[in-house]
Write a structure and sequence with these properties.
With 82 residues, this protein is of the alpha+beta class. The chain has helices spanning 21-29, 63-66, and strands spanning 11-17, 37-43, 50-54, 57-61, 69-72, 76-77, 80-81. It contains 2 helices and 7 strands. This is Ferrous iron transport protein A.
Length: 82
């Protein structure tokens, strides 16, 4: 699943970055490494960019960047994450 597939309020964990070169470097620099939790906070009125909560910081990413981020969804239960 791609980060762009998540709806507002949904969250997941970075599984893999498919970006190359400067885009990959930017995503790594903002902390998007395997296992990082990402939550969709809001989208602009025209749908791009989208605001994400990443490592306690709100970061706006355009679809052209977010499409390179593979996400996995993990359900939480009363004992923690499954």
């Amino acid at each position: 699943m791609k980060l762009t597939d998540l709806s507002i309020g949904e969250e997941g964990f970075v599984e893999k970055l498919e970006a190359k070169d400067t885009v990959r470097r930017r995503l790594l620099d903002i902390g998007l490494v395997e296992g990082t939790r990402v939550k969709v906070m809001r989208r602009s009125p025209l749908g791009d960019p989208t605001l994400y909560l990443i490592r306690g910081t709100m970061i706006a990413l355009r679809k052209e960047e977010a499409q390179f981020i593979n996400i996995i969804i993990k359900e939480e239960n009363e004992n923690g994450i499954n």
